[in-house]
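Long-time lurker, first post. I've been practising inverse folding by hand and with some scripts of my own, and I keep getting stuck on stretches where the C-alpha cells seem ambiguous. Below is the full C-alpha cell string for one chain I'm working on. Before anyone asks, I'm not after the true native sequence, just a reasonable design that respects the backbone. If someone could post their per-position residues I'd love to compare against what I wrote down in my notebook.
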C-alpha cells in the first residue's frame, strides 16, 4: 500500500520560514519523481516544485528563489524548505509522486498571517 504522509505545516508570520516533509512508503522512492503542489481556497491546484530521481528541480515562478525542494532517498523523504513566506503562499500543500502511476498525500495546511 502506497502512502505519502506530509508534515510540517502550520501558522507562520510573513517573512518567516517553514519546512515541509513528505515520508513515502510502498514505492521504490528513489525511482520516483517527487513534487509539491498547493491549492488555495477557490483556486486550482498548482505545481510548486518538482525533483527528479536524478535530482533535477523545477519551480513555479512565484516561489523561485524562496523555496527549495530536496530529497533524501535513504529516508524515503522529500522536503520543501520555504523561506520569505508571503500571505499568498497560504494553501494546503500536497506531496505527489509519479512513475507511470501517481500518488497523492493527504495535504498539510500552511497559513501565512500576522
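-- Answer (accepted) --
I ran through it position by position. Result:
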Amino acid at each position: 500500500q502506497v502512502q505519502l504522509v506530509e508534515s510540517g505545516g502550520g501558522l507562520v508570520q510573513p517573512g518567516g520560514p517553514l519546512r515541509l516533509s513528505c515520508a513515502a512508503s510502498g514505492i521504490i522512492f528513489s525511482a520516483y519523481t517527487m513534487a509539491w503542489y498547493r491549492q488555495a481556497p477557490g483556486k486550482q491546484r498548482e505545481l510548486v516544485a518538482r525533483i527528479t530521481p536524478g535530482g533535477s528541480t523545477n519551480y513555479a515562478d512565484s516561489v523561485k528563489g524562496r523555496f527549495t525542494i530536496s530529497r533524501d532517498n535513504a529516508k524515503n523523504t522529500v522536503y520543501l524548505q520555504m523561506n520569505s513566506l508571503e500571505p499568498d503562499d497560504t494553501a494546503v500543500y500536497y506531496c505527489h509522486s509519479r512513475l507511470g502511476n501517481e500518488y497523492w498525500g493527504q495535504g498539510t495546511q500552511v497559513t501565512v498571517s500576522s
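A couple of notes from the structure itself: DSSP finds no helices and eleven strands in the chain. The mean pLDDT is 96. Happy to go over any region you disagree with.
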